[in-house]
Amino acid sequence: MDKWFHSQNKLVQVLLLIIPFINWIVEILVRWSAALRKGSVLKIVFALVVTIFGVVIGWLDAIWTLIFNKLILE
Predict the structure, then answer these.
(1) Number of domains the chain is built from
(2) In this predicted model, what pLDDT tens digit does every residue of 14-58 receive, in sequence order?
(3) Is residue 68 part of a domain?
(4) pTM of the model
């Protein structure tokens, strides 16, 4: 899922991260996909945090993606 998300253009990424419930689902899928694929402890911990506080972090990620073209802590 994280590879699919990163292959989308910036507008689609930001739109997916702005919509309240959709951003939480996208965050969970992208973060857990990357954490399970790469296996880093930091990625797993951040995936847990996103699972709990996903909507707020999704909005921050939308802004971060606009500025830096990647998700926070990626």
Answers:
(1) 1
(2) 999 999 899 999 999 999 998 999 888 998 998 999 898 878 888
(3) yes
(4) 0.81
